[in-house]
């Protein structure tokens, strides 16, 4: 029957269905064109560079590019427990000579030294021999090289060079978790007293978790108060939440630095009420306490605002109904009000946790050595040690964690439901 | 929040405990900002309340740190303020233009892959600043824009657009699209419709998003730390160095000015929010 019905035509004779589809497509393109400038801008300046971070973090091409002939020759090296054949030695010698010409042999020595201790000195020794023209290129290079230093006779050093052959490595990620590739290629843990990164990860999680918890316990009552008070009072109190929210982060951190210093007002207050003696004022800054206090105050508005916007929509008659049905105020609160606020709790806690886990400025200023987080370590490697690939690797590990939470947040709350102010 | 007269004693007690807790939390939130205020007028160099200040002795107060802020040679606050304003203004304009356009597209019901694109556009707000800083630094270094105003402005546009996208999408969610159709049926072209109908209606959202973008740029320090050279120093950078090296009262003078600025921004944001709610009320 359907094939026999006359198609509805538009005035210009095109079937309506086709015409509608065309219009739909046009609208789609129109909508997309509006988003396109920002999307393109972000992809070029932001998303690609994050991909670039990944490339940097796994990049290990330096030696691959420095010793091309050696690695080619090493393909023929079959029994890895014995010294490589003459070809490998001579290939390495010519690669090295080329590097000397470009004055890059120092970089090679340093990089190989990271793989196995002792490379720095033997490459330097080889350099001297080459400069003095002690090596006869027409004779057997293997034997001459083995005479330069006894380590060139050790198979372990050649194995170390071979390990650097792959152009990509996960070593930086392992380092971020206090692990490394052992000489036999397995994954090993660093010594217990040198596991600094694991401590930092755990501390970051711990601080983010407790700051979220503190924010929740402080934010919930005041959000409730703000949502239940009459407008004219709540608007006034709202300023107490919004003013810190709009104030510069550095200003707020500075005020905590003043308050928490040893001669600061908080300590003055403790002395006044007799909690501590005047000559025994506790150190509250440059440690975890400072980080906790300052971060809680700074992130509290991000907890209060989502909670408030959810609580505002809960009708007060629900609590009254609960009470009139025989519940005590506590029961009514717990069984009726609290479950209704769970979306707000989820939104607030996830938001605070996401922000806290990547915090940098405040811990760097008030945290001291025991209050610093993973972000501070990333900044340290970016600015001080200049190990950018390691900083990238740590950054991406942190990013993965944040994206997982972001994904949960998106599922639970939806990004388009984020409310500001 | 007066209690009904029939309230039992234990709930009465609980109620007062609750009010006390709330009071303490409000003090915890707002009090730190008020410490800065009096100390910035300290006549002495220390960051504690001197005896004279406690006794309200007029000699204990002075404007010397404000003087130092404006005329001091040691701290380039003037250059920093100029840079901060220039960068923030351009970053705000960029964020508003890109963000509003994107929000318009995202609010269209024809938009394909809405969720994914929205998540991408919001991501600079969620990704920890230190990671954004590293990534943007790599890009700017490659593009030869490190240590230039242009580079910092672009970086701040990245960080500012999510706020504009969110606020404008929120405003558009209450937007009655039949008015634009009405305009079109009366013969207005799309650009004209946007300028005369849509923009005035969503303006509160656009401006409040712009305020967020402005504050984000004006207060941003992590990304600038990676990008700025000596010539591009901004107020947050100066404060950061000052706080790291030595907490001088001049910083408190600057901080006081910043608090005044944020109060002004808060007031305008609140006014805008109310106006926006009123406008959207009419539309419904």
Radius of gyration of chain A: 32 Å
Strand content of chain A: under 5%
Tally of individual domains of chain B: 2
**CATH superfamily of the largest domain in chain A, called what?**
MetI-like
Largest sheet of chain B: none
User: Structural class, judged by helices and strands of chain B?
Assistant: mainly alpha
In short:
The complex is a heterodimer of chains A (421) and B (284). Helices cover 69% and strands 1% of the residues of chain A.
Q: How is this structure best described in words?
A:
The complex is a heterodimer of chains A (421) and B (284). Chain A is mainly α. Chain A folds into 2 domains: 61-167, no CATH class; 199-417, MetI-like (MetI-like fold). Helices cover 69% and strands 1% of the residues of chain A. Chain A contains 19 helices and 2 strands. Chain A has a two-stranded antiparallel ribbon with strand order 1-2. Chain B is globular. Chain B has 284 residues and is mainly alpha-helical. Chain B has helices at 9-39, 51-54, 64-71, 77-107, 114-126, 129-143, 149-173, 178-185, 190-219, 222-227, 235-245, 249-283. The longest helix of chain B is centred in the last third of the chain and has 35 residues, at 249-283. Chain B is built from 12 helices and no strands. Chain B folds into 2 domains: 9-65, no CATH class; 77-283, MetI-like fold. The relative contact order of chain B is 0.12. Chains A and B meet through helix 1, helix 10, helix 11, helix 12 and helix 14 of A and helix 1, helix 4, helix 5, helix 6 and helix 7 of B.
List keywords for this structure.
heterodimer, A: 421 residues, mainly alpha, MetI-like fold, two-stranded antiparallel ribbon, 19 helices, 69% helix, flat, B: 284 residues, 76% helix, globular
